[in-house]
Specification:
Elements (H helix, E strand, L loop, with lengths): L1 H17 L6 E2 H6 L4 H10 L2 E5 L2 E4 L6 H10 L6 E2 L1 H7 L15 E2 L8 H4 L3
């Protein structure tokens, strides 16, 4: 039992250190990396992770970033989506005018792409 606790502690340390702030962690993706559902639940109860919707979590203290959400959709969920228009220009620092209000984000994805509810509910 003590050995299992050490393994779980090193796993959470790895999870906290390896993945950037604001990156959404999908439960199914974590399972494929060796973090079983029960262990994820333990991390949520302990306050290491917090749920932002069904099957999606952030590290405790992290804010949801659009860049982290898009990276998750691309890399963990294998959804073909990317920034477009002014959003892409702003991310690359080449937008021509100073934006004084919060801008809308333009995303491109193939026709019938269905985005997960955790993404749609966290605008």
């Amino acid at each position: 039992m003590i050995e299992e606790a050490k393994i779980n502690k090193s796993k959470i340390s790895k999870l906290i250190q390896e993945y950037p702030k604001g990156l959404v962690l999908l439960s199914s993706w974590l399972v494929s990396r060796g973090y079983q559902y029960e262990l994820q639940q333990q991390y949520r109860k302990s306050g290491w992770l917090r749920s932002i919707g069904k099957g999606a979590m952030l590290k405790s203290g992290d804010q949801l970033l659009i860049s982290g959400a898009i990276a998750t959709l691309q890399l963990q969920a294998n959804i073909n989506i990317h920034f477009g228009g002014r959003s892409a220009l702003e991310l690359n620092g080449v937008a021509h005018y100073l934006q004084l209000t919060q801008s809308e984000v333009t995303l491109f994805a193939p026709g019938k792409t269905k985005l997960p509810s955790w993404f749609m509910n966290n605008k």
